[in-house]
Design goal:
By secondary structure, this protein is mainly beta. It is 4% helix and 59% strand. The protein has two helices and 23 strands.
């Protein structure tokens, strides 16, 4: 999808003024979000938000400074000067270890170029000091695709003697969770929270929450989020082939490299173009090098085709590897020889 053509800031300011909008609204249009309400979080939990600012104008933009109205929230930026279509990330981190209760922060983003302006971003959070999760995040780390995994964290509560976790909820179909009580007495309650990532979860980054649904009287406080993070990595890594180039009627060979974290076999290797020949190796290895030979016909031009690789890695589907070749005319014979 094509981006809209940037316009000069002077034009934007004139248009905003004509509609009665604030003369500083040009700067707000560069932000993806105006704020974040985290709701209820536990003491010591990882609580941060990244705001993206993109220069949609022809003039260069410069962010002079960013400040926070609350000591509970620190803020940083990875780039202060932006040319057209360049982006910067503003990261706000809430200190949930040293603060509790309701916390509100206003982040003031001050521009010095192309015109002075200020954009305010709002942060809201309620930090529960009576619930602690250790570690503060369920970290799966890097998980090979097709491999289920589960991690356990400890939940500790101090307060009512009858406090309990009634159930654990998740809107992510790839996550399941359960809480098992491990101790109770003298106003202290402890649970083990086990979160499992399903084996059929797709490749990609997981960043979600499971929610502890408690018997707290306050309906908002009764849902306690616990952050879950991880990366589901492809079981098979294939290094792409370069464009093959050869003269008409000639052959060229390049190696296709396949790598996995465990021993595997290539059970089938084919191509939809008969000019491409390759043979699946028989032995099991963690790294396979497959020679790919392309024999050009007499017709110069570009060739596009697809190699299909099938392995014995679990229930892995065939992997499509694109292949491009360039056939160039035969060099004219040197008449001087």
């Amino acid at each position: 999808m094509m981006r809209p053509i940037s316009r000069t800031l002077a034009t934007a300011v004139v248009l905003l003024a004509a509609t009665g909008a604030s003369a500083q609204d040009w700067a707000r249009k560069m932000f993806d979000l105006n704020g974040r309400d985290f709701g209820v979080v536990t003491k010591g939990s990882k609580t941060e938000q990244v705001f993206t600012v993109e220069n949609i104008y022809e003039e260069d933009a410069h962010i002079e400074r960013i400040t926070s109205s609350c000591g509970c929230t620190t803020v940083s930026i990875d780039k202060q000067s932006l040319k057209t279509w360049e982006k910067a990330k503003i990261t706000a981190v809430v200190d949930t270890r040293n603060h509790t209760g309701r916390r509100d922060a206003t982040l003031r983003v001050v521009f010095s170029k192309p015109f002075p302006a200020e954009v305010q971003l709002q942060i809201h959070v309620f930090i529960r000091g009576d619930v602690v999760v250790r570690p503060d995040t369920v970290q799966f780390g890097t998980v090979p695709v097709g491999k289920g995994v589960q991690k356990k964290v400890a939940v500790a509560y101090a307060g009512r003697s009858d406090w309990r976790i009634e159930r654990v909820e998740s809107s992510n179909p790839n996550l399941t969770a359960r809480a098992v009580e491990t101790g109770r007495g003298m106003g202290q309650v402890s649970y083990d929270l086990t979160v499992a990532l399903k084996a059929d979860a797709p490749v990609g980054y997981v960043r979600d929450h499971v929610f502890l649904v408690t018997n707290d009287f306050n309906a908002q406080a009764a849902r306690v989020p616990v952050l879950v993070e991880g990366v589901i990595a492809s079981a098979l890594t294939i290094r792409p082939l370069p464009t093959l180039m050869t003269e008409a009627g000639q052959a060229v060979t390049r190696n296709l490299v396949l790598e996995a974290q465990t021993l595997f076999r290539v059970t089938k290797a084919t191509c939809d173009d008969p000019r491409v020949k390759l043979t699946a190796p028989a032995e099991a290895k963690t790294v396979h090098v497959i020679p790919v030979t392309f024999t050009a016909d007499d017709k110069p031009g570009k060739v596009k085709c697809t190699i299909q690789i099938q392995t014995d890695l679990g229930n892995a589907a065939p992997v499509a590897v694109p292949l491009q070749a360039q056939i160039v005319p035969k060099a004219a014979p040197d008449e001087g020889n």
